[in-house]
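I am writing to request your help with a piece of structural work I have in hand. A protein sequence and the structure tokens that stand for its backbone fold form the material at issue. Please examine both parts with care and let me know of anything in them that strikes you as inconsistent. The record follows directly beneath this note.
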Amino acid sequence: MDTVAEAVAYDAMDHREVNQRFVDDLLAGGPVGTRVIDLGTGTARIPILLCQRLSEVRVLALDAATSMLDLAATLIDVGGVMDQIQLEHADAKALAAFDDAMCDCVISNTLLHHLPEPQRVLGEALRLLRPGGRLFIRDLMRPASNAEVDRLTELHAGNESPEARQLLHQSLHAALTLEEIRDLLSELGIDPATAQATSDRHWTIDARK
């Protein structure tokens, strides 16, 4: 999403139900604290929803695409939560500029499947968390067959633009399976059972450091 047009096209996709469910599940799973970091925030739709629900929360929303952050700034203003969300241009794989144990909760939605080494982001997320802090990460789950990729793409993006359908199709192919993400968690010393399938196309990690 390197251009304004790409950011606008992505934001125009109908992610309302998915974003709302992310926030609902995050809050239903337990406290998030007051200091939250969102890795790969995109246009900050999820932090906006979260801050509209919890006035005490402050979110540091990071993304590597300035086009996304530019649009996010406008949406945060419209959403009435400018005093709760701080946007930062940053690569989630390399966050050395950010302090250890600086937050209560790290969240991320559908970022890892874009990255060749997702374990690096998971490691950085753990470093940023205080002891006892919460890791809540959701991403797409790779189906077992090409036919299932086609079925899920038609089911969930059949009414979207051809570009949106292609994006979901490619993302499902690129995603990790539940077994693969559990293996990564084990390597990092996190209970693999904290990753669970949470929809027909998503897995979710909900763990404490």
Q: What stands out?
A: The chain is about 45% helix and 20% strand. Residues 4-141+176-208 form a domain with the Rossmann fold fold (CATH 3.40.50.150). The two ends are 31 Å apart (CA to CA).
